[in-house]
Amino acid sequence: MRHSCLFAAVSLTLLTLSGCRVDSGGDSSSTLNPASNVDLTFSTFDLADTDRAPNTLSKTRFADFYPGIEPNGADQTAEYQATAADIRRHIDRFIGAEPTSDGKSYRKVRNPLDLMNQVISVGRVDNFDEGRGYIRRRIEADESGTYNSRANQASIRFTDQAATLENRPLNAREWRYQTLDWRYQAGSETGHVYRTIQHVARSVDAEDRDKQPQLLSVLAGSRFSAASFSAIGYNQPEYATADYVSRDYGGIELRQEFIGTTQKDTLYIKSPEHAVIDFSRHGFNMEDDSPDCLRIELDYGMSKVHLFVSNDEPARIPDPEEDPADYENADDIPTVSNPANCANQPETEFLMSWNAESTPDRQ
Fold it and tell me: Cα–Cα–Cα angle for 35, 14, 199, nearest 5°?
């Protein structure tokens, strides 16, 4: 059985204050995967801070990285500021960000990952709450457990009421999530909960293609401490990844580390030619103005940004220790990581670096 409830998604305030819940048919007594259909209608998919929910944007995926790459001190030069702005404008295409007037932060975002994260953390959706409660009970009993919508063929659909009334394109008014998964493995020495969220835009006719939003898909994974994993509220991840694919601008991937002394975000821009970063402004005359690999690291402890670039360097190469003559097919030669690829370049081999704004409230 599927039920629908109207939520105000600008801040998700009504999700917490209206008392409205979605009883989506899950069986709370089940000791197996409790995932079931969820169908939510929102006044809008836009997320923004409001007086009644002032911290909505602080939990969005790029809340730290986006303003954190701003040059600081002696590095507040026009060149470094322009490079940081180029990176942000590229991110905007994937997360639907509306920048603030100075361009250093955003006042609004609109994307499936941030919306799902908000809905889960705020609660009021019975089946999602039951999913987390089920995993919490599995942890306490030290028994393995999985909530997985795909395995149960459970449908998760979010609908934007305003976009529907305006007859906006299909993927602007309706988001479907192919996978929502929490899992805990009993007896594991690591003691972790893993969560996966996957959204893929629905197929449309060729003539409607360019009317759709840029974001085609997002696949996100998070790792949480099982000891502190809560059935209610916001769970702070230890590690998180998010892989975004767009229609016209390639893809980006954000990897985040939140624990220990390593507080770091790493952004991979998979099609750097679309980011339109002018490296010549820093005096780098690159033979190819469109490198195929671009990695930006933000170290929060050191308040430092490092930028790595490579071109025509595959992520893996044939093992130089192997003799090609020993293999009938070149594809059979074992491979190793290519140290020249930007994803594998040592921390000391960055193309450029600058001091960054401090981020004391790292989320």
Answer: 40
pLDDT in tens, 23-72: 544 444 456 899 999 999 999 999 999 888 888 999 999 999 999 999 99
Q: Is pLDDT at 287 greater than 90 in this prediction?
A: no
Token pair of 60, please? 């969005």
Distance CA 79, CA 198 (A): 37
Q: Which among 63, 66, 60, 108 has a CA at the least distance from the CA of 84?
A: 66
**265/268 Cα distance (integer angstroms):** 10
70 and 138 belong to one structural domain: no
121 plus 251 within the same structural domain: no
The domain of 289 spans 63-108+247-363
Helix (H/G/I), strand (E/B), else coil: 161: helix
- As a whole number of angstroms, the distance between CA 167 and CA 174 comes to 11
Answer yes or no: is 233 within a domain: no
**Cα gap 315→339, rounded to integer Å:** 8
Mean local confidence (pLDDT), 94-117: 97
DSSP 8-state code for residue 136: H
